[in-house]
Amino acid sequence: MTASPPTAPSSNAPDSKPAPHKDDITDPRAIQLARIYALLRLALIVTVVVMLIWVVGDVLMVIFAATLVAVILHNLAGLVERHTRMPYWLALSTVVVVLIGALTGLIWSSGPEISEQAVKLRTALSEQARNLRDSMGHSSTGRMILDNLPTTLGGNEQTAGNAGFGSIAGSMTGFVSSAFGAAGTLAVILIAGLYFAISPDIYVNGMLRLIPHPYRKTSRTLLLTAGRTLWAWTAGQALDMTVVGLLSFIGLWCIGVPLALALGVVAGMANFIPYIGAFVGAVPAVLIGLSQGTREGVMVLGLYAAIQFFEGNVMAPLIQRHAVKMPPGLTILSQTIFGTILGIPGLILASPLTAALLATMDKATPKLDDDERV
């Protein structure tokens, strides 16, 4: 009698159970540990990102500014390419030449007048600041405010050797070196932005190669969404700046305020920063208006209030209908955060950066159902 060969163990045997899938885990302790692990991992990622921004924030702002320049040039060249059927490189060259020509023509025609008015504006503002400080020094409330303001803002809280507004003269060397540094940074941004615009696919594809293969399509979609959002925000803000600058110039000229052209340019440029820029652009005009008399100062204040009312209730809804809609509270909060961490560059670039982040988050996260909405 021959022995039967051993049979393979049945798949239903207790020792051959497959390992449980992570979705099949019902142990409350395991679920809690998984959640703790996910929270710790998220906290670590956020900490690394914040530290990276804190350490190399200036470099990141330069890269983002160059990217913004590249987005503008690329989309302008795309518009020329679609309407003229010329190659992309020729369309980009045409855009660059036109922009350089327009800037050169503006400097040639209005540069001397704008420069002269800018110098006069700075002198007039310094004189108004001194007069304001002197008038505040004649009241107890004003002296209390001055005693708690640093010398950089015209106050009395100073170290040995400083003398209020006189300390400005002593810091001219630092100002000149900062100006050269700003000019060099601007040159780097423009040159890098031009190179990004010449061959955007090289840089974008290089970034995508660093991303794991399963996430490349999603990352590509998010990058394209961020690029379209930056272009829409920039185009809308450029229109907004132009309208505010022209209305400010025309209104100040009609009122009879001196240096109307320079003040209009300041108002338009300052409006690149939403909300905060409106206040920054209005302060010099109001001070110059007060130097002409109380009536002129009140008229200038009313003019800027009317312009901002028109911009906020007419221009902004029209622009946001075709561009980017950002909640005001989130805009101001982002300006505060980026301005605190990265200084003036962070304050200037906070709005386009926030717009791009909002667009990518909206694309990457699922929509809320009706029963999930507040």
Descriptive overview:
- Mean pLDDT is 78; it is low at 8-17 and 159-177.
- By secondary structure, this protein is mainly alpha-helical.
- Helix 1 crosses helix 2 (88-136), helix 7 (216-255) packs antiparallel against helix 10 (294-322) and helix 11 crosses helix 12.
- It is built from twelve helices and no strands.
Layout of helices and strands:
Blueprint: H1 28-84, H2 88-136, H3 140-147, H4 167-170, H5 172-198, H6 200-209, H7 216-255, H8 260-270, H9 276-292, H10 294-322, H11 328-342, H12 344-364
How would a crystallographer describe the biggest sheet? none
Strand content: under 5%
Mean pLDDT: 78
Cα-atom radius of gyration: 29 Å
Notable features of this structure?
globular; 12 helices; 77% helix; single chain
Quick synopsis:
With 374 residues, this protein is mainly alpha-helical. It has helices at 28-84, 88-136, 140-147, 167-170, 172-198, 200-209, 216-255, 260-270, 276-292, 294-322, 328-342, 344-364.
